[in-house]
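Predict the assembly for these two chains.
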Amino acid sequence: DVVMTQSPLSLPVTLGQPASISCRSSQSLVHSDGNTYLSWFQQRPGQSPRRLIYKVSDRDSGVPDRFSGSGSGTDFTLKISRVEAEDVGVYYCLQHTHWPRAFGQGTKVEI
Amino acid sequence: EVQLLESGGGLVQPGQSLRLSCAASGFTFSSSAMNWVRQAPGKGLEWVSTFSGRTSNTYYADSVKGRFTISRDNSKNTLFLQMNSLRAEDTAVYYCAKEWGIDYWGQGTLVTVSS
């Protein structure tokens, strides 16, 4: 099974400053169709998760452009260019290239 | 607008069964893969099961295989999760989520397994 490892697990941030979360997979997430199925989710306190990024770097509709995703193979990054107060929450990566699907442990972003 | 509304959660004793439902609207349900994802109190997200849209294939996490069954009624745009032989470690909020890439989530329903 693919294991997804996020770091750090806790990320103190300063408003207006950049932030970065790493997600590493135990094997390549490149699918046989050529796509890499790595997504990022935000879960604000008391809310359901919301997808921010899919296929490594495609931003979902309505997601602010301060969020960006990058990476390839087994090494992926979510970046927030300038943290805002509403960005507080837990961020998860998910791989859906292989079965079983696997989430990272989550990274708690706090001001 | 995509809407996913879970129901059926509650308090049950270990060994008992429960059936969750997810009413979907705002998209073509019959051709969409659908998932169940759970989150134990204070913990992270755990994928539970997926029902494909077009091929009727089903997939399960090892932790629930043989105890949980995912199904769907395309005529009623509804997804189900039959949970048997429940254990304390199945206690979680269960989310219904749309598509392979999990682009939309419901609000979740809480399942508590305790004596």
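The first strand of chain B starts at residue 3 and ends at 7. The two ends of chain B are 40 Å apart (CA to CA).
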